[in-house]
């Protein structure tokens, strides 16, 4: 078990639209831009090996901004291709709040952050007492059929509540702002309810809602 005091106050930031990492989730990434190749190399020199995934956003004057909340992941998997690209896996550790972006000579972005308010992320997997798994999986099957998506239904059926909701939140093809809403959900129950709403909205928007 780790606490916020064990985590660094400044971390490298990877702003990637639509890429969602959640606590205790796993995110595979394909790294090929020189600045992010440098970020991975520097990350592997640290004891924590943390990278902050965060959604970029455009400010009112068109400036490049970041959302206030992201999620840090520990680099747990790494391989290099023959042409110098990296294939990595991040294991979600905790969400964080951006305090300020730091200036420096690194080619990638770094932020001073706060872990306050996210102690739940560092604890045991969450439970969702009101989760109706049968109804949820029925909704999910309709959504996957409507969107022509494929998955391993046996694995989904057997997954624990948090793993199921986390994996679907990360993998479903929602808009970046929708992904941000899932990230900022304070509890697993809230995230599941948000996920259900997004699925229903997507089906209704496509004219493929078969739910009555």
Task: Write a compact overview of the structure shown.
This protein has 212 residues and is α+β, with helices and mostly antiparallel strands. 33% of the residues lie in helices and 27% in strands.
Task: Give a verbal description of the structure.
33% of the residues lie in helices and 27% in strands. The longest helix is centred in the C-terminal third of the chain and has 18 residues, at 188-205. With 212 residues, the protein is an alpha+beta fold. The chain has helices at 34-43, 133-147, 153-158, 161-171, 176-184, 188-205, and strands at 10-15, 26-31, 50-54, 56-58, 64-66, 69-80, 86-102, 109-114. The protein is globular, with a radius of gyration of 18 Å. The protein has 2 domains: 4-122, Archaeosine Trna-guanine Transglycosylase, Chain: A, domain 4; 133-205. The strands form 2 sheets. The chain has a 5-stranded mixed beta barrel with strand order 1-3-6-7-8.
From the structure above, extract its key features.
single chain, 212 residues, Archaeosine Trna-guanine Transglycosylase, Chain: A, domain 4, 2 domains, 5-stranded mixed barrel, two-stranded antiparallel ribbon
């Amino acid at each position: 078990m780790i606490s916020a005091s064990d985590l660094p106050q400044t971390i490298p930031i990877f702003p990637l639209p639509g890429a969602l990492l959640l606590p205790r989730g796993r995110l595979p990434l394909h790294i090929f831009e020189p600045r992010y190749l440098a970020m991975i190399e520097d990350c592997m020199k640290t004891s924590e090996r943390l990278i902050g995934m965060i959604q970029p956003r455009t400010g009112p004057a068109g400036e490049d901004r970041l959302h206030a909340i992201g999620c840090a992941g520990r680099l747990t998997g790494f391989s290099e291709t023959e042409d110098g690209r990296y294939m990595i896996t991040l294991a979600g550790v905790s969400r964080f709040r951006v305090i300020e972006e730091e200036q420096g000579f690194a080619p990638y972005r770094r932020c001073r952050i706060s872990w306050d308010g996210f102690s739940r992320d560092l604890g045991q997997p969450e439970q969702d007492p009101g989760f109706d798994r049968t109804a949820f999986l029925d909704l999910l099957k309709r959504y996957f059929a409507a969107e022509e998506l494929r998955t391993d239904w046996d694995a989904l059926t057997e997954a624990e509540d948090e793993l199921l909701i986390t994996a679907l939140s990360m993998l479903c093809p929602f808009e970046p702002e929708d992904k941000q809403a899932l990230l900022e959900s304070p509890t697993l129950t809230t995230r599941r309810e948000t996920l259900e709403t997004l699925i229903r909205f997507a089906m209704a928007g496509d004219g493929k809602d078969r739910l009555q």
